[in-house]
Write a structure and sequence with these properties.
two-stranded antiparallel ribbon, 6 strands, alpha+beta, 11% helix, globular, two-stranded antiparallel sheet, Alpha-Beta Plaits
Length: 94
Amino acid sequence: MRRTRIRIDYKLCGDGVGIDPRECGLCLRVCQPAVFLLHQTQGAKEDDPYDPQIWRVTPLWPSLCTRCGECEAVCPAGAIKVSPPVRPDGSVTK
């Protein structure tokens, strides 16, 4: 079985721009299966590569996602998009 696709637009949330996920964290709180992980990431090459201000929310366990849509609905930046899995024949899993 294919995993649910969860995409996060890091221009809207994290990467030192947009919303700081450490201050928001709404998706982390509403996700009952705990799909997301908040972690520090490397910055751009011209910046300090370990700038402590650059954090991301990553969908680390998308196979646990129930596609309830709570994370999409609660995200103030609209940065999260959840898509159903696509089968090899191109059909969408319901």
